[in-house]
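FW: tagging you since you asked about this chain on Friday. Here's the raw sequence from the shared folder, copied in full. Didn't touch anything.
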Amino acid sequence: MRKMPDPILCLASVSPRRQELLAQIGVPHTVVGAHIDETVRRDEAPREYVSRMAREKALAVRAKGELLPVLAADTTVVLDEVVFGKPKGRADGLEMLTQLSGRTHQVLTAVALSVGADVSLSVSTSEVRFRPLAPEECAAYWETGEPHDKAGGYAIQGRGAVFIEWLSGSYSGVMGLPLFETAELLQAAGVPCWYGGSR
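HL: got it, structure written out here
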């Protein structure tokens, strides 16, 4: 049996989606959760918010003594310059879906890479349009459990895909880790993709 390569990166996220995306581009990694306060500051613009979150997650894991390069990401849904985080409960989740219904929103994902004392950052911006949603299908979708821990209350890679009429930008960015921007950051830091050849 082929030996798995040693990790060359630490992912500051317990998200299975981010782990799968990082594995997709052949980067063996360890996982350390970054637990930080994700409150939006007063008058903080959405792009500034996701950038700060990604940077703080990377630095939080670095502060635990991690020696590998640390990669962190943060994703938020934005409608009319308002940040839609993870739903606080059923009513909040249904309200988010109702507001997104029939409209185009932005998905911002910031990626931060901490190597030594340096942190490099990139932000992916995508636009996503929902078809009009009926209240009963929003309620049925909530009951699947999928939207409970997702920014904006939906998952593009899951059942929520049926709501999406149109997308411009990065599919992987909407999932939570834009692979183009991630690969650029890794390359600039000397961290290879496709590490160890074929799987």
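FW: The chain has a mean pLDDT of 94.
HL: agreed, and The longest strand covers residues 118-130.
FW: great, closing this out.
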